[in-house]
TrEMBL record:
Gene Ontology molecular-function annotations: phosphatidylcholine lysophospholipase activity
Domain SGNH hydrolase-type esterase: 66-218
InterPro entries named among the record's database cross-references: Ester_Hydrolysis_Enzymes, SGNH_hydro, SGNH_hydro_sf
Regions that span the bilayer: none
Cleaved signal peptide residues: 1-28
Keywords (A to Z) from UniProt: Signal
Pfam family, one: Lipase_GDSL_2
This protein's name: SGNH hydrolase-type esterase domain-containing protein
Domain of life: Bacteria
Originating species: Rhodanobacter glycinis
Amino acid sequence: MNLLRTRGIVPRLVAAFALLAMSASAVAQVPPPAHWKTDIATFVAHDRVDPPPQHGVLFIGSSSIRFWAPTLAHDFPGVPVIDRGFGGSAIADATYYADRIVTPYHPRLIVMYAGDNDIAGGDSPQQVIGEFKAFVKRVRRDLPGVPVAFISIKPSVARWTMWPAMREANQGIRRWAATQKNVRYVDTASKMLDAHGQPRPELLRDDGLHMKPAGYAIWIAALEPVLADYGFHTTEH
């Protein structure tokens, strides 16, 4: 009797595990949150009214890119720049909407800052590395060979407890980029730490997360030679 019961339980357990596996797979394929649709629709509507430059430098990513919009053109004078940052976004969001906020501009260089929110949302460093690889692959599907520069995930006061995971993601992306053609890892994180390896609060706003102009100055200095390598030379500030 016990043997018969055991034989009846095993198939049910197998079926249950199969169903769980199918559910997990379905969850993994769910598109990014619908609330980004408003941000993306705004970009698309703006592009219709005031088309951005073609073949320029596309800056894409989360709030650190979005907050750069008011000064981005001034910070890289003479360079045709496009800001497509939307606050709170993760790398996968930029990948998902690439057909609307990457491909239409035919950029000659893409600069990405993202991954900060990925780690804060619970992603592992390995997931962040994988998402960046997926972004590059998606972009290259429509724009073969376009260079992509990844700005290192920044250390911040607000998310300092997450820094070990962020640093591991940075290191993984740096190692992968070194094996790829036209993928660049731009180290800004090391310059945003003090002599004791702590985040520099003077670079950050009162929220301890987003940057003041002093923080962006570090990014500008790190990016100018990268842009120059791809033919984008700034005029005098």
